């Protein structure tokens, strides 16, 4: 039986949320994608398929990993609680990857805009990196533009903010769905995908296109 406090999301639902959102993202026209792990990895890869243009290479996906949630440490319990500090687990090695942020349009992807703390941190740090790269090139500004895509934006008081120019642009802040503040159970977190998918279907969170 599905837990009433959870919103179950199926792989079909994730795939079609990305498909539906691709048109708006194409208007932003990103040069590449930065996926915040682990929740942003699968949506980013699906998006790349729908953003592919004929006779053009697929968009590059760059992975960063940030930790905001802390395991409660209860044996057999996979519950998590919000952390108070963002920790870098993996960041971009600009020298080895040859990643340039200057004069680029970059799509940042995560699965959910919950407290907004992780997105705020990622965007701030990436902007700092962009300005640092610009200075090394002798430029006054990086002219880097960021957009954000999430599958779900929770209706709640956010603990951090995003730039006004991003939030007020329908092509730079793209949330596939706005949902109540509840526990969202994503398919990649499931240890038994068959009942998980069944619960998602029962809740109306499966294929819709």
Q: What does this molecule look like?
A:
With 209 residues, this protein is an alpha/beta fold. Helix content is 32%, strand content 30%. The protein is built from six helices and eight strands. The strands form two sheets. It has a six-stranded mixed beta sheet with strand order 4-3-2-5-6-7, with helices on both faces. A two-stranded parallel sheet has the order 1-8. The two termini are 26 Å apart. About 6% of the residues have low confidence.
Q: Rg to the nearest angstrom?
A: 18 Å
Shape: globular
As a percent range, the share of strand residues is 25-35%
Mean pLDDT: 92
The span between the termini is 26 Å
Class based on secondary structure composition and strand pairing: alpha/beta
**Secondary structure: helix percent:** 25-40%
Low-confidence stretches: 70-81
Strand order of the largest sheet: 4-3-2-5-6-7
- Number of helices, counting only DSSP H or I runs of 4 residues or more: 6
Q: Major sheet, described briefly?
A: 6 strands, mixed
Strand runs, count: 8
SSE pattern: EHEHEEHEHEHEEH
Quick recap:
The protein has 209 residues and is of the alpha/beta class. 32% of the residues lie in helices and 30% in strands. The strands form two sheets. It has a six-stranded mixed sheet with strand order 4-3-2-5-6-7, with helices on both faces. It has a two-stranded parallel sheet with strand order 1-8.
Outline the fold blueprint.
Blueprint: E1 6-8, H1 11-28, E2 32-37, H2 41-51, E3 60-71, E4 80-90, H3 94-97, E5 105-113, H4 117-136, E6 145-155, H5 164-167, E7 173-180, E8 183-185, H6 193-202
Parallel strand pairs: 1-8, 2-3, 2-5, 5-6, 6-7
Antiparallel strand pairs: 3-4
């Amino acid at each position: 039986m599905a837990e009433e406090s959870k919103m179950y999301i199926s792989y079909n639902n994730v795939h079609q949320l990305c498909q539906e959102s691709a048109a708006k993202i194409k208007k932003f026209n990103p040069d590449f994608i930065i996926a915040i792990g682990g929740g942003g990895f699968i949506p980013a890869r699906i998006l790349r398929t729908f953003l592919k243009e004929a006779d053009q290479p697929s968009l590059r996906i760059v992975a960063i990993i940030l930790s905001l949630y802390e395991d409660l440490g209860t044996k057999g319990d996979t519950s998590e609680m919000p952390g108070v500090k963002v920790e870098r687990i993996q960041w971009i090695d600009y020298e080895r990857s040859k990643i340039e942020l200057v004069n680029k349009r970059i799509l940042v992807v995560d699965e959910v805009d919950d407290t907004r703390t992780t997105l705020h941190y990622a965007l701030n740090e990436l902007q700092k990196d962009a300005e640092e790269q610009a200075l090394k090139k002798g430029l006054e500004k990086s002219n880097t533009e960021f957009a954000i895509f999430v599958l779900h934006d929770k209706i709640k008081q956010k603990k951090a903010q995003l730039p006004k120019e991003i939030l007020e642009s329908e092509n730079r802040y793209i949330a596939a769905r706005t949902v109540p503040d509840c526990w969202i159970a994503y398919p990649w977190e499931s240890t038994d995908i068959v009942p998980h998918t069944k619960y998602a279907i029962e809740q109306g969170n499966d294929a819709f296109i």
